[in-house]
Recover the amino acids of this structure.
């Protein structure tokens, strides 16, 4: 196993993207192995690398970690992006839970029928602007600090930036009612590690396209209709 | 606020049940039951619910929401989260896996009548082919009483809850899993779990039609 973490996933965003963001924020270089065929996936399964038969899987520090949340928590704690104590961690966990729910609406979007996509688009914008963005807008306004928790850059900031950019891809002016978040977005994007990740040539993945959807369906044999939540 | 946490949820299992299980070790001050939409709307209006959702657990001066955040905090506070980062990683992996199985059970009462048989079959398939084999193997390989670090942790509580929840639907589900049978017996005898399994504890019964109705009315 190499010293660098190694990510096993499709060549696309999905559930692995938040992990890429966090590793980038921590300044950690990583390798990737992209699943393209059913055979590759079955080989991983047979080799016993996938604890619950699923990806994402990340080889890190001698472990074959699965379960996105477990992987993210480990990285956050290891690289000091998880607050200074239990209470700060609780706040970070709460905020990340929110952005995770928001990004969850977007995660399955590429797999929806055209009709469901239209409905889901509206749901995403509605949830973002009436449930989630107001919370973070208020947090930033109330304490007036640069970062969400403990006046220190943390996982919560990285996750929120990722969520903001993803929602903006669906509606480019979605931050128009949120001045704090606009300033936050500019600030966090200009942190060197984040700036680098946002530049072309980084390991950030593009918006999922038909080829990505096709690959996932083929590798996972996931041919059924995905329903919107 | 007294030392013990206060829980706000419907009078039923839902997403709060795993928290009740975990708090069995610590004890709970009180539970506030949401019965009407008016109560729920008031909580939102009064600013109690960060993302307009329950569970809500008032603990140590915080109004905590987000089930996972709440459980991580409780596990950390009551020493149920392993001794270091790697043990925490193992516990997190196991808990997340079990949580995926529990999610299937969580939504089951809300599936349409013609989908129930299929969904029950899926729960059985996942439990017996994906999740239970993992923990059977873990216990067999290290031969210890507990899943992680030879010490009682959140992972053991979560697995115990899942085993009982699946057994309620599929009584013979542990028949191919001797290690899990032993584990279930051992966990049942842990003093705090034993107490939680007795009548009169905060443990809630399986969801019934009334519970489903209340949920649908409240969150429509």
């Amino acid at each position: 196993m190499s010293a660098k973490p190694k990510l096993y996933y499709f060549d696309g965003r999905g559930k692995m993207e938040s992990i890429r963001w966090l590793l980038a924020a921590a300044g950690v270089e990583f390798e990737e192995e992209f699943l393209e065929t059913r055979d590759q996936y079955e080989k991983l399964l047979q080799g016993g690398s996938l604890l619950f038969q699923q990806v994402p899987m990340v080889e890190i520090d001698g472990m074959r970690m699965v379960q996105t949340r477990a992987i993210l928590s480990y990285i956050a704690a290891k690289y000091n992006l998880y607050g200074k104590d239990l209470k700060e961690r609780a706040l970070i966990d709460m905020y990340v839970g929110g952005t995770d729910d928001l990004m969850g609406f977007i995660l399955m979007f590429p797999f929806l029928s055209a009709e469901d996509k239209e409905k889901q688009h509206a749901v995403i914008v509605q949830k973002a602007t009436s449930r989630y963005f107001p919370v973070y807008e208020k947090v930033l306004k109330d304490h007036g600090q640069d970062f969400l928790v403990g006046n220190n850059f943390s996982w919560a900031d990285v996750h929120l930036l990722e969520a903001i950019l993803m929602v903006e891809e669906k509606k480019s002016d979605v931050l128009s009612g949120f001045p704090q978040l606009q300033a936050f977005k500019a600030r966090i994007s200009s942190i060197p590690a984040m700036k680098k990740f946002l530049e072309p040539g980084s390991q950030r993945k593009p918006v999922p396209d038909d080829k990505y959807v096709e690959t996932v369906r083929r590798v996972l044999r996931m041919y059924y209709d995905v329903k919107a939540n | 606020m007294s030392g013990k946490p206060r829980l706000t949820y419907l009078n039923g299992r839902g997403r709060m049940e795993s928290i009740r299980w975990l708090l069995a070790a610590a004890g709970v001050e009180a539970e506030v039951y949401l019965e009407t939409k008016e109560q729920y709307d008031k909580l939102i209006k009064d600013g109690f619910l960060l993302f307009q959702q329950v569970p809500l657990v008032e603990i140590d001066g915080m109004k905590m929401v987000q089930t996972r955040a709440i459980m991580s905090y409780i596990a950390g506070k009551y020493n149920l989260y392993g001794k270091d980062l790697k043990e925490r990683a193992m516990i997190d992996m196991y808990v997340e896996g079990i949580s995926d199985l529990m999610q299937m059970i969580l939504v089951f009462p809300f599936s349409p009548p013609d989908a129930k048989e299929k969904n029950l079959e899926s729960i059985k398939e996942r439990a017996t082919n994906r999740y239970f084999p993992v923990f059977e193997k873990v216990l067999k390989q290290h031969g210890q009483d507990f899943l992680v670090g030879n010490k009682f942790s959140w992972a053991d509580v979560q697995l115990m809850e899942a085993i009982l929840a699946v057994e309620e639907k599929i009584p013979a589900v542990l028949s191919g899993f001797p290690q899990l049978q032993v584990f279930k017996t051992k966990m049942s005898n842990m003093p705090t779990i034993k107490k939680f399994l007795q009548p009169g504890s905060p443990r809630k019964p399986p969801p019934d039609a009334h519970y489903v109705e209340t949920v649908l009315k409240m969150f429509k």
Q: What stands out?
A: The beta strands of chain B are 6-10, 30-34, 56-59, 62-65.
